Structure formats: structure tokens, C-alpha cells
Amino acid sequence: MNRPQANIVIQPTPAEAAQRLLERIAAIITQATLRWSDCHIALCGGTTPRELYRMLATPPLSEEIPWDKVQIFFGDERDVSPDHVENNYRMASALLLDHVPIPLSHVHPMPADCRDMNAAAEQYENLIRRLVTANEDGVPAFDLILLGLGGEGHTASLFPDTPALLERDRLVVAQFVPVIGRNRMTFTFPLINAARNVAFFVTGVDKAKAVEGVLSDDPEIRSRYPAARVRPAHGELSLFLDAEAARNLSHGQ
Ligand code: 6PG
Description:
By secondary structure, the protein is an alpha/beta fold. Helices cover about 30% and strands about 20% of the residues.
């Protein structure tokens, strides 16, 4: 299987890469809200998107977005309460969602801090199936799924050597991740690959090896990086990178 076709946007700095991604996000929201009712977006967590979310909440751009037609979900969540410093929903709320006029009913945190995480994952999947229109394969198709990339190639909470990598039916699962010693809830590849647009936002030299691996022409190398399995069946895959994260890519890759 060849490496996925992707739009690769490389900018000198994280802020410039974020600016290009913001332009793409605004275009996706405009297109989605003109074509149907709501625009369904899944946010990623971690530290990389912090500045992106802060910029998305800053005028004039933030005032041009029809927030009453945007529905926000989360592609993965840590097993901590919504007010915990490590919670992705808390981070996105502090930097973005608390600063834009998005209806509270349009923000859907992942309930990853409950005792029965499998039941909670199933409930979150049912919520997605209820709110997000399915594609021709019967899978809910997000207008945009934002993803980060771990240094060893994980994305969302799809870590190397974990059962969720092999999931073909469930759209949201919970799993224990040995390498971090924690439980996580995460979208699976069937849901990610049903999206109309998937955008990685990756910065920093510590991600350069994983970026190179994900985009490698060698399937054996790609197989080491879970993020290489992101290949939207009918959608567009983009990578927004700063120069540091892209430093191992050959020119024109
Ligand atoms: C999370 C994310 C995860 C993240 C990568 C990169 O919950 O941590 O969803 O997939 O995107 O781990 O994290 P950084 O941006 O902090 O490097």
C-alpha cells in the first residue's frame, strides 16, 4: 500500500504553520455550514494546539466563524476529571471554547474519567452516530478531525502496540496504554478515516523522526508509526508542519 496522498504545508515557525491551518479551518467551516447545517469538528489535545486554539479565539477571525453552527467533539481524552490540568477539554475550553459564542449544547467532552470507561466510550460513539451525518459507508463523517503526533508516532490515543490500532468496527474505545501507565479514550481509525478532512498539526524537532516515518515510502517504516494508518477513504489529509518538524523530509516530499 503506497503512502497516503497528503497536502503538506510547511512554514518556518509554529505560529506561521498555525496561521495556515486557521485559514483551512475557517474555509472548512464556511463550506460545511453553506452545504448543510452544522460543521462537526473533533479537537486534539496535548500542548501543540494550544497556540492554535488561542488564535482561533482571537478577533477578527473568531468573529467571522458561525459558532452557532459548529459542533465540537474531542478525538481523545485522558482518564482525568474535566477540571484536571491534563484534561484536553479543559485546555480547549480555557483557550478557545470559553471565548467564543458556541452554544454549550454544541460542546461534547469525552467522559474519560468514569469508572466504566468502556460503557462511556460506547455512549460517546452513540452520541457521534446521533449527531454526525454518516457517509456512504454508514460511518459518521466529521467535517474536520484535528490530530497531533507523538514522538513515537501515536495520534489521538492510538499508541504503538495497543489493541485499539486493530479496531475495525468500534468508532470510540477506551484502553490502558502501558507506555504511559494510564487509561485513555480515543477515536479509532474507522472513525478518523471517515472524515471529510483530517489535519495534523505538528511542530518541533522532537517530532521530525515521526513525521519522516509517517510519510516514508517504505511500508515497513510506516508500519512502526500508528499515525501512518490515517488515510481518509473519501476525505482530504493535510499536515501542517513547522520547519523543525519537517526537517527530515526531502524537498518536495
Ligand atoms: C493527547 C493528544 C495526543 C497529542 C500527541 C502530541 O491527548 O495528548 O491527543 O495525541 O496530540 O501526544 O502531543 P503534544 O502536542 O503535547 O506534543
